[in-house]
Amino acid sequence: xxxxxxxxxxxxxxxVAPGVRAQLPAAPPKTPAxxxxxxxxxxxxxxxxxxxxxxxxxADKEDYDLAVSYLDTNQRGDSAxxxxxxxxxVLNRESSIDLNEVSAKPDGTRQDPQNPNRNLVGMATTxxxxxxxxxxxxxxxxxxxxxxxxxxxxxxxxxxxxxIANTPGIxxxxxxxxxxxxxxxxxxxxxxxxxxxxxxFVLGSLLGRLLRPLLTAVTTRLLGRTEIDSVGSLVGPLRLxxxxxxxxxxxxxxxxxxxxxxxxxxxxxxxxFGATWLSLRxxxxxxxxxxxxxxxxxxxxxxxxxxxxxxMLQVAVLIIGVLTVLNLGGVNxxxxxxxxxxxxxxxxFAAQKTLENLFGGIMIISDxxxxxxxxxxxxxxxxxxxxxxxxxxxxxxxxxxxATIPNGxxxxxxxxxxxxxxxxxxxxxxxxxxxxxxxxMQAVLHKLRDLLEKDDRVESGTARVRFTGLGSxxxxxxxxxxxxxxxxxxxxAIQEQLLxxxxxxxxxxxxxxxxxxxxxxxxxxxxxxxxEAKSVTVADSxx
Length: 543
What we know:
Oligomer: single chain
Number of helices: 17
Strand content: 15-25%
Distance between the termini: 62 Å
Helix content: 40-55%
Number of strands: 16
Mean pLDDT: 75
């Protein structure tokens, strides 16, 4: 299935699901606790919101006998049904009731401490002023208390109805067929929705074309060269957000209270889904571009961390979007967040070692004690770093095997990075022959010091040459100097040239390196033979 078809199916599901949910004949959406509290009254009158929604649903179905059950009135028969019809017209045409703001608690909002059993749910605007719409909790006999439209509100309903009866509505100018209902909604509202969808698609495409050069310029400047095609994936989410905004604006022009609630809930869902979708796409593009930049700069050790952070941000955005939708649907997020906290704590204990290695890898990548390609010594392991992952680090040892070290252990081990040396220590010991005269020794010392001082590759300020002692068969001279080199290979080449120059200095002074004497005794037939062997010993330098 291609992306376009998937986007269309997602859009269709978002459009249909809220509408189907709104047509269910059940009570208004509540949390499980609210359902349990409102189960005392079969008509849903245990809460202010249940009373308002139940009345409007019954009136929209023209079941005015049932609608009268939501009124605190002594009228009966036709007069009561007429009062319910008038209240329906007032609430649909002139009220400012936001059903999402009406309390869904059995105790109401307790707006007035002097009269906690009365709640203001909205206002009805007339030519003579505003009429407050109130519900009041009453108790009849031994039955549980229920919320009904108050007597004060019902007393002003006939006057408010006469006022709006003289105000023509849009439906009076529409053909009769467009005023008929489909899924409890007038057909003209469904036609407006069908016209809005292609309009939003066109506007989304135009907005995408306008944003493409802007987003391309921004990403190119911040992250380097980018792909224009990746910006085109933002058109779908932009269309969904635009559709939600358009429906939110048009919801105020719906001429039924439940219609306004339906369109506002639908527009809120579309905006949240579209914003979440758009955020996921933006994070995906940003992650892709940043990873491409890391590849171009050779920062291989940061690739895994960048991909992980991108996924974590996308998961966080998705969770926020889901929680927002649940909150709009009336779900109590306190219990949900508490469950997520307990589940996260259990997961943290179960994956303790994995998390330890994960955070160890993040610390290594962020602090950068070693990088890919560095020669280092980690504990007892000496080699070159091949890869730094989120769970472990791989090292190519000197014998060409691969050692895998968990990042949790690596973070606590002693680590020596040879590649980060700014200079190398050159420290040979010269063993001159025992027959070397004082003049020859002074000549050698003078020329060695002159060599180290004039060579630009040697740190002359810390270089020293000292006659350190007399051996049994040699006169010892110690050289100590720091050589400027960026890697071991460069140091070995410089060291080789310096050693050759030292040999030339010794030869030019008329002396030679010491030749230690070694004696070997062989006994054969009680005859002892002594043979002397001469060998040349060259002091090994300490790298």
